[in-house]
Design brief:
300 residues; Rossmann fold; ten-stranded mixed β-sheet; 44% helix
């Protein structure tokens, strides 16, 4: 009996100890959880405080930038102007800067788009240099010829864009006159004008190849038929057909033969140089000149 009683008492003694150890472990877990919650609460509070401080700081800086007279536009630097007047650019700037001239708020992209509406402008780069400097870099279009469109003669650039011009610009420029360009802004018209100006540039490049400089002799370039470029030389009235390639060779052949042809055909109207082994000429019949009739002849 004593032995059984001893075993029972030992078991009973161990049970409270196990219960106490479990309670201690549970207490430690709860304590750790509370500490972690407090830690996360502190971190969250600190994060919210930091975010609020940064937001307020950014708002304060933004407000200072937007309303401080220190950032009003005081210097306007405009580069690249030759044909465009500085007043045109300043007017576009003042339209956007009035009445608020704050450089930070100034809409650079809108100014760029407005400046690109000026016909002479090819590209625009607009920059701000804090605290008060606005820089405008303009690349102007480069005229390569005159274009006769309707009753007007306008300068035209290498992309086929017709440019506004004034009498002073017309007197300073020394280009041939292109016939055959179209007015209008539809995609088809713009495409055809680009193709014609590309053909014109090919002609100029070919005539000047090797330092020949023959393009200086051109007065008119007729591009009504893109498959057959024709030209009139300075001080001449004869229309010379050059086709679509081999421009310098054909042009030299005409120069070599022109004096003889004019002697032979006193009313020479046009010369077709497209054929390799012959020159086809067209003369005005003096008897029918008032009626505009023509008679064809050929020179082998």
């Amino acid at each position: 009996m004593k032995r059984g009683k001893t075993k029972t008492m030992g078991y009973l003694e161990r049970q409270p100890r196990a219960i106490l150890e479990g309670q201690r472990a549970s207490g430690k877990t709860k304590g750790r959880t509370v500490r972690e919650l407090l830690r996360w609460s502190l971190k969250l509070s600190f994060g919210l405080l930091l975010a609020s401080t940064l937001s307020f700081g950014l708002y304060w800086v933004r407000d200072r930038l937007y309303h401080s007279p220190r950032f009003d536009i005081a210097i306007t630097e405009i580069n690249g102007l030759q044909q465009i007047s500085q007043n045109q650019v300043l007017l576009k700037i003042s339209e956007l800067a009035h009445p608020d001239r704050n450089l930070v708020r100034f809409d650079l992209d809108r100014l760029r788009r407005n400046l690109e509406l000026i016909p002479w402008v090819k590209t625009v780069v607009v920059r701000r240099v804090l605290p008060d400097k606005l820089i405008v870099d303009i690349e102007e279009r480069r005229p390569v010829a005159f274009a006769r469109v309707g009753q007007e003669t306008l300068l035209i650039d290498e992309e086929g864009t017709l440019l506004e011009n004034n009498p002073e610009q017309l007197s300073q420029a020394d280009f041939p006159v292109i016939l055959g360009m179209e007015s209008g802004f539809t995609p088809e018209i713009l495409r055809r004008n680009r193709e014609r100006i590309e053909l014109y540039l090919q002609l100029i490049g070919a005539l000047n190849r090797g330092g020949a400089g023959l393009s200086r002799d051109l007065s008119e370039v007729h591009l009504q038929d893109p498959g057959n470029v024709s030209v009139i030389l300075n001080g001449d009235t004869v229309l010379v057909y050059l086709g679509r390639d081999g421009f310098q060779t054909k042009f030299r052949r005409y120069l070599a033969a022109s004096r003889e042809l004019k002697k032979k055909y006193r009313n020479l109207d046009s010369v077709d140089m497209r054929y390799r082994d012959q020159v086809v000429v067209r003369t005005l019949d003096p008897k029918l000149a008032q009626g505009g009739s023509r008679k064809d002849s050929s020179d082998g």
